[in-house]
Amino acid sequence: MLSSLEIFFGEGQDFVSLKVNELDADFYNEAEKLHDRYVEDGLLASREIFNRTSNEFPEAREVKVSKKLKGSARNHLCPCGSGLKVKKCCGI
């Protein structure tokens, strides 16, 4: 007799999304056995899990400028260290 997971995957489904508070032990064991069988048959490759964080949106650096810049001073490099001109960066 086929289990409910075997029937589900036998119909060509390749992704399951479950929203439950608790999975019972039988369901978990059945899913684990099915996964192991798929890996043995070459249907699934073993995967490595990587734990990495990235700082995609770093905190902005605060720049304190003591005076307003006028004229050609706006064409100097910005003191924040961005490499841009003042008029294109902090826009003082």
Low-confidence stretches: none
Strand portion: under 5%
Which structural class matches the secondary elements?
mainly alpha
Largest sheet: none
Would you report the number of β strands? Answer: 0
What report would you give on this structure?
This protein has 92 residues and is an all-alpha fold. Among the domains are: 4-40, no CATH class; 68-92, no CATH class. 25% of the residues lie in helices and 0% in strands. It has 2 helices and no strands. The longest helix has 16 residues, at 25-40. The chain is rod-shaped, with a radius of gyration of 29 Å. It starts with a helix and ends in a 52-residue tail after the last helix. The relative contact order is 0.09.
